[in-house]
Amino acid sequence: MDATSSPIANKEAKDNCGKNPLIWAAYYSRLEVVKYLVSIGVDIEATTNRGHNALMYACERNHLDVAKYLISSGANKEAKNNSGFTPLIVAASEDQLEIIKYLISIGAHKDSKDNEGKTALDHAKEETQKYLKSV
């Protein structure tokens, strides 16, 4: 039995860090599991103790296919974690240029600020800064 055909005892279960099954699936880029969990109604905006959601982990770890699916399924591309990071700021802080390009292409606000007043550009490294300055 694979992960997409096995029943989930508690689809909203969370570990000690607050990660639910959807967040773990996004973290490890398990797109089919992400699709299954979304299809059975797992909360797409559920967050960890730090306020990270599944989309933020997909962006942090450069899982573009997962990020696209989550957004197409209704994930908020402007959601903020406890530090005020949006998915774009998360991607910029990890220099995930392909994710950044995608988020910008679908209208993510590049001027959103975290709790310290920093934007994605402030968090980005040199290569990513060049791109963000050009758009």
TrEMBL record:
Family annotation (SMART domains): ANK
ANK repeats: 17-49, 50-82, 83-115
Superkingdom: Eukaryota
InterPro entries listed in its UniProt record: Ankyrin_rpt, Ankyrin_rpt-contain_sf
Coiled coil: none
Renumbered residue ranges of the record's region Disordered: 113-135
Keywords tagged on the record: ANK repeat, Repeat
The protein, known as: Uncharacterized protein
